[in-house]
């Protein structure tokens, strides 16, 4: 009997423990965000593709339905060698509605870039869609994807594309470095008013080393004219740290564009799906930063033109709410640093043996930042050292204005 | 034998208690004690860019008012602010929060630019108008933001023990359509607290309006350097 009673108590105790443990596990799963996800691993990286139908020369749709288009996704590695075969991240075939959802294998993603939100999770990829062999039955697109995200895209057949049969029946994306060019990329409209100093810093650290993106320029022939493709992250990890300083201690107020000198690489690329290969394409892609920052761009603006030189930033007339300014003062709030997730797109004309207008996106994050400091002189009462956003509050401004002036009237 | 069985029961009860304690600890970490049990991450407020404002060194006990952060309702529905606090390294020890207020959008003499202020409420001379402006401050709790509307946030902070701090942003709690949310806004501050921090005078544009606007100098702030300041 005693043993029985003790046995009953023990069983009750075990039931109590199991009950509490089960309850605890259930509550943790309900209440702690990500607890369930952590048990099953990180969120998948997914590409949701919709395809449009190929059209004939008369504009009619060549296929009867949307199904059976092959979609392949290739990883464009960071720090690529001169020649490489991009690994296949995923493949799929569209359904009758033209849709396919591909969960990507990201195991090969190394050294991802930071889009400015502090997460190292961005990488370059090439997506190819192949409907069949023949003219106008393929499409290719470069894009930046982020790990753990679902990205929707639509692929439309390129009428200039010709898909030939793939005798190897293996999906591949082969890349060869065939040329290089040096170009200055606009990365900042830098404003530093009287009585202030500004430090624009581009650097790298152990976790983040790539943050600038520029559109890809491509053509089938390798010569001009080039078409403008999607944005790609700089390919090679930054190895330099440069602080570009202007303002009171460096000759006075400064309102110019700042350019970062990058080497671009021209790639010869060919993509094959299981059922066919697209034409060889030549692509100019942003490769490596030389460590130089300047406001005096030595690149020509067009064939036969002189250098672009210094491009001043036109400070807009003050129209915003006067209280949206932020005061800097050597005796109070003496500095302001923008290391931000915002990206701002600057247009540029780039010479790739033939000029093409591209956009560069300057991303401010932990390795690309601007700090304004109130200098001890250069701006005295009744004027004030003010940061302002031209229609935005300072924390939300795409371009930060900086002036020593008498605070304007309220609207 | 009995002793062993009793030990077994104690161990099972101990395990159950440990599981409960673990549960409570996990809940505390998962929910963030500062957020409370109703912490759902919201997206109604514009996150804005990452900004860090650098402040002059303060002596322990000195106060300063900070008017840089914004709350902007980017959603389609109105919301009501419940509370706002700061978060980051050194917050609560090196730098402490004394008061939080909303600075509503104002025109004319009822508004000031952003920045760090040594008088309360924020007061500054407006050169163009030839007047002194003083920022209107209102209670945080219950402050309503209609869709598309914004306001600034005023933090009155006090220097604590010597050291450095890096407040990397503020945590805003609000209610919208019956649901409580919390959201991080990355407007932060950094600086230091030192026993012998050098004297920094009040900005002249601020100083000339303190008397006429009946503002008060914050503790540890002086118009001229006190004789015994050191």
Overview of the molecule:
The complex is a heterodimer of chains A (411) and B (230). Chain A is mainly beta. Chain A has 2 helices and 28 strands. Chain A has helices at 2-31, 35-40, and strands at 45-51, 70-76, 83-85, 88-93, 99-104, 113-114, 120-130, 134-135, 138-146, 150-155, 162-163, 172-192, 196-202, 213-219, 227-233, 242-247, 254-273, 276-277, 281-294, 296-300, 307-310, 326-328, 333-338, 343-351, 355-363, 368-374, 384-388, 401-405. Chain B has 230 residues and is an alpha+beta fold. In chain B, strands 1, 3, 9, 11, 12 and 13 form a 6-stranded mixed sheet that branches. Chain B has a 4-stranded antiparallel sheet with strand order 4-10-2-5, with no helix packed on it. In chain B, strands 6-14 form a two-stranded antiparallel ribbon. Chain B is built from 2 helices and 14 strands. Strand 23 (333-338) of chain A pairs antiparallel with strand 1 of chain B, so a sheet runs across the interface.
Strand pairing plus helix content of chain A: what structural class? mainly beta
Task: Give the class of chain B from helix and strand content and strand pairing.
Answer: alpha+beta
The residue fraction in helices of chain A comes out at: under 10%
Low-confidence stretches of chain B: 1-36
Helical element count of chain A? 2
Number of domains of chain A: 1
Give a count of the beta strands of chain B, DSSP E runs of length 2 or more: 14
Q: Largest interface: which pair?
A: A-B, 59 and 64 residues
- Name given to the CATH architecture of the largest domain in chain B: Sandwich
What is the helix content of chain B?
Answer: 10-25%
Might you state the CATH topology name of the largest domain in chain B? Immunoglobulin-like
Strand proportion of chain A, as a percent range, falls in over 45%
**What coarse outline of chain A follows from CA principal-axis ratios?**
elongated
> What's the helix-strand series of chain A?
HHEEEEEEEEEEEEEEEEEEEEEEEEEEEE
Low-confidence segments of chain A, given as residue ranges, are: 1-11, 13-39
CATH evolutionary superfamily of the largest domain in chain B: Immunoglobulins
Average pLDDT of chain A, to the nearest integer? 82
Main sheet properties of chain A: 9 strands, antiparallel
**Number of structurally distinct domains of chain B:** 2
Helical run tally of chain B: 2
